[in-house]
Fold these 2 entries.
Entry 1:
Amino acid sequence: MAILTDQVRQQVQERFAEQLSGPVQLTLYTRPGSGRLILPSGMGCRTCDDARQLVEDLQHAAPDLINLDVIDVSVQEADVREVPTLMLAWPGEASRIRWLGLPAGYEFATVVDAVERVSSGGHGLSEATVEALSRLTEPVDVMVFATPT
Amino acid sequence: MAVASPLVSARTVEANEFPELSTRFGVQGVPRIVVNELGAFVGALPEPQFVDAVLQLAGVKSEA
């Protein structure tokens, strides 16, 4: 089952052709999927298969600039508890941008947007924000709880 | 913000998929923004207020 319609796939491809300039690294952490709605804690993953298809579609939209690694946490040890987790990074750097859960609906748009920002390095923030961020001396972790509507 | 500053890391959590995390961080409405796993605020704020709120919760003094 395709997650994205042909039209959306085409749109993403066109946007990426325009907006992407540098390489990005996507890493998806998954576990073998399950169609069961209720799963014992730590077993299976209801949305991993969908997440995998979604990020594969993203990667196919700009295969020269987007590298995708898929890591099955049931096989390979990883410092990731929640699956699916998608990490976005500059190649060779630790990821500081993550999505926990299937980034569907509006969240998918935030993934597309973030891929473009990381690729181009254009954060799109105001000068005042950049100045404010320059006052940081310690790492800050920001979690945003959202729903995919 | 994470693109603009190497000191910022950002995680978006699908609240329905991870009820344990949602409960742990007191999620009743979305978007709920949790800073350094301690302070939090609710609602999509405009950029200046959002940045102020995050920095305040992170313990960064406002400009002199």
Entry 2:
Amino acid sequence: MGAAEANSGELLRDTLDMLILKAVEHRALHGYAIASLIQKRSDSALKVEEGALYPALHRLEVRGLLGSEWGLSESRRRAKYYRLTAAGRKQLAKETARWKFLAAAIARVMETA
Amino acid sequence: MREAFRILRARMKAFWRRRELDRDLEEEIAFHLSEKQRELEEAGALAEAAELAARRRFGNASLVKEQTREAWIFRSVENTLRDGRYAVRVLRKAPAFTAIAVLTLAFGLGANTAIFSVVKSVLLDRLPYKEPGRLYKIQEVAQDGPKQFPLTCVNAGNFLLWTRQAGPAADLALLMPSTHYLNLKDETVEITGARVSANLFQILGIQPWIGHSFSPDEDVMGKAGSVILTNALWKRLFQSDPGIVGQTIRMNGSPKVVDGVLPESFYFPKQNELYGSNIAGWTHPIEYFVNLALQPGEMRPGLQMLNFAAIGRLRPGISANLATEQLSVAEAQVPTEGLSGVKMHVALHPLKTAIVGGAERKLWMVMAGAALVLLLVCVNLAGLLIAKGAGRAHEIGVRAALGAGRMDILRQFLIEALMLSAAGGTLGMAAAYWGLRVLVRAAPVQIPRLSSIAIDERVLFFSAAITVTSAVLFSLVPALWLSRRSSAGTVKASGPNTTPNRAISRIHHALAAMEIAFCTVLLVSAILLAQSLVRVMRANAWGNVSHVLTLSFFTPHTHYQEPGRRAQLITKVIESARNSPGVEAAGITTALPFQGQAWGNDVDFKEDPKTAKDRPNANWRFVSPDYFRAAGIGLVSGRFLTGFDYGRPMVLISQRLAKELPHVVRPVGAHLYWMPPGSKTPVWCEVIGVTADVRAQPEEEAPYMVYVPYWESPPSGISLVVRTNGNVRTVAADLARLIRRTDSEIAIPRVESLREILDDATAPRRFVTFLGLLFALSATLLAAIGLYGLLSLSTSQRTREIGVRMALGARTTEIVRMILSEAATLALAGLACGVACAWAATRLLRAFLYEVKPTDLTTFICVCAGLLAVAALAGCGPARRAARVDPVRALKWE
């Protein structure tokens, strides 16, 4: 397995983590709603794979960046809601800053070319 | 870092709620699917199609679940659990092996745990005092040229010189073990304790549990009016009555106020430990403390009245060297009358070393023996695992073929080993807990700090550590070998005829030989110790000591101050004892054999005058005429005392002392100088007889002895010695009653047979020897098991070869010889190595051997012969099996 491949995977995972954290920034959401929200906000440009979503959610929960509790969904069914913890909020701020810096840098490179 | 901790905590929590988490995940994904389905339905799809589409979109749900779950679990823990379950199945399939492994490990680990807890409590634990590292025992040392004579005891006058000098360096306490009679309402009880200076408890940093410590004005020159009791004494004799504090009790007939009772956890060294001697008769616990109250006679500095012990606490910032220097300045002023050229100084020994120093080497030696046994257990198991592994090559091959990596197989083996070891360790711990009680009860009183021995968390940690170490030790070699083999194509080859791997077979042989070698070292050591014990016992086996009874008591202080009354009492006691049924002879002495030297004093012969420095120093005993007959001490020349000698100044001396006289002087008829106590005029006593030598300690040469008739100076501490017709117990009870009837104020006498006294005095040696033999015999058993396992394996591996040989006309005897010669070769190799090791190792034993050389040839030859016999025995079974091999079947097996 090449190092480049591993790195790109890492990047994707980090990006998904960041998107998830952003999605629950203001209110607690269940997994399905998080996927829908990301899709809607990106005008369907970003599709979240379910196969990647749940491992990511649980990873974030284990890392203490997300908290979770069981609640009732709009369809009156029991659903697991994720919310941002204090540590998660800090992480999100860090990620956002990093993302903005990176995006601007990439944009500058791409425009000059 | 913080996050890593959060993850660990989350995973730990998850570990216990795995079921719940799985259910939650299930539900979460089901919810996701149903939401998706609803969305599709709202978009106009049919219910069934929507469900299918939702599932398709989701992908492989169980894979997602698996990946999600991974966030929560410790990979290694899950694998370990799986391996553990597998290991249980494997071990259950081989019950004989499992039983041997667990039992031998339990023995090895249990023995080490038990002995370590003794070592820890006695040697490693700090003394339970405030800042115990600053406490020192102070000793006087006489230096005569390059020669030093450390005195075990201290003179109180010299101590007073120190206190004047050493004020800023150290706080010093003086004490002296003592025996008192506690007069209770209806009986008098003998108790042992100490006279101590009032600052002792302050120096130790100990407060009484109830009441208060001695006040400073009760110090050295005080009035001796107070007593502090230990918790044990208070419970035993005062029924734990807290009201006793402040009350007055009577000790030796005079009143004492109880100042306080010490806490239950209070520890204080025993009498002999304070003096740094190992005399069995002095091992009484200190159970009370009274004021020191020095008598004027005790305060004279010099080299007499060495009856005290001194403990000092160094002030902060003062080193032991500095304190030694300061105290030595004072000690140099001690007058050394008569001993010209002797220089006095002091030596400081850390208090703990002073207390436990005597037991240190013995305990480490026992610990080393136990460790060797555990090592042997491990080597033995390694061998058995290899034997077992030969049959598992197939299984390992299959596992490797199915994709198990080398690490997986190594881990599997290690887990099997750990499970065996843990089972053995748990069993061993239970055995140690039980065995420790037996050990403490059986242990000689001479071992210090026995009462504080317990299994605590440090012992548990040690036990866990050796359990894991053993597992690694015995599984490593077989596991490395088997996991390496796994890569080869062993799947095809199977059955008992698998060709033995040359390398591993060589390792297996080496392990078996190693067992024999360890076994040799242990056996040689144990037998040398056993021989020493036999020799010690033989050296002290004069007379029939088990028929001799001793009853020790003191005359009450109240109305026996006058020597004449004491003499009357002694005469009366001897008279009535002799007339008791079952008594053949009765006499008294002031110090019993085997209970250490006492009453040392110079002997000055009229016929052979010498300067004070050159005179022999003898033990003086005050005896009655029949003492020699009662104790069984023989006469070498001259005659014994008789009742008709009463009142005449005459003595007997021991053979060794008689030999000190020049040849021209006949000992019988010679005279020696004797100054009766309280008298100003010396007496020349005529020597009327020479007696056989009697030892004061079982392993030391008999001291010079002078026996003075009791009427010359009637003692107050008396041991009645009677020779019985064998019915010791009845006679003992009769005599105890008889003595109490003579005077009701005499405390219940201490009754022991001479045999018991000898047994107590030799207890440390018997204890170490017993453990040594136990270890050596178990080692032999282990080596036999190991050898048997190896020979069984090699016989079964050579079944085909044996078949061929038989088919070609080999006779059974030749086959048997073939197997036995393998056993013999192994045993000889092991012995060669073991003898070399033992030759080196037994040198370390030298200090514990008595009249046996560490390289005693007979012992080595016996051990070699014995182990060869064991090897032959271990080879018998496999050899018989080999002889019964049916050539046809053996060849068909292929």
